[in-house]
Amino acid sequence: MKLEICIDSYESFINAKEAGANRVEICSALDLDGISPSVGLVSKIAGDKNIEKVVMIRPRPYDFSYNDEEFEMMKEEIRIYKDFDIDGFVFGLLKKDGRIDLARTKELVELSRPKEAIFHRAFDYSKDGEEVIDDLIEIGIKRILTSGKSPTAIEGIELLSRINHKYKDRIEIMAGSGINYSNIYEIYRKSGIENFHMSAKNKRKTEMVYLKESKLYQDIGFSDRSLIRKAKETIEKLS
């Protein structure tokens, strides 16, 4: 069983690693559901050999239908980050009609090799999703991050259970959205899923002493070490 933490700062990376997470998904701007991280953050994290590391490839927030220029940006980011000591890439692409863009996904999978390729929660916003899991397996996707096409994994437990039991021997199904130490056992018991993705979000006050009324000075988000540790302890009891 594995616990993955999505992080958008070095502080959150340290918290995830020291709390026992198995893997981090390196992003930026988690308040926007995560976009591609900075080269500086990936470079600083990549040298750590004690934890798995995957990198989000998402050129902008909002939807998952990208124009040609944005798709070229995604490919260029993969080319750049392949030189770092990371384990894989996380991406998801949809066509304008809501179907998963298998042709472009395959292109990114091939470009990512020998790193692993993970399809993120674009799966949950797709029109097809479950109907094309066989295709995602065939083109080389190793893992799908999903909430069962619902706002949270708990709400999507029926679909999570169905696809995990059907495909678990061929692809990893990882539960995400609303995951925390208090519901991991329920999700595992009802679905059999053994991979969990969470942010362990918390906020702290800025250390700035000169403040004005501005969004610039809002509280700072981070992945909370204690919440990660509690989730990891729950998983260890189930292992």
Q: Please, could you describe this protein's structure?
A:
It is a single chain. The protein is built from 8 helices and 10 strands. The protein has 239 residues and is an alpha/beta fold. It has an 8-stranded parallel beta barrel with strand order 1-2-3-4-5-6-7-8, surrounded by 5 helices. A two-stranded antiparallel ribbon has the order 9-10. Strand 4, helix 4 and strand 5 form a beta-alpha-beta unit. Helix 3 runs parallel beside helix 4. The longest helix has 14 residues, at 68-81. The protein is globular, with a radius of gyration of 17 Å. The N and C termini lie close together (6 Å).
Oligomeric state: single chain
Overall geometric form: globular
Order of neighbouring strands in the sheet with most strands = 1-2-3-4-5-6-7-8
Q: Roughly what fraction of the amino acids lie in strands?
A: 15-25%
Radius of gyration of CA atoms, rounded to a whole number: 17 Å
Please tally the helical runs, counting DSSP H or I stretches of 4 or more residues.
8
Helix and strand run: EHEHEHEHEHEHEHEEEH
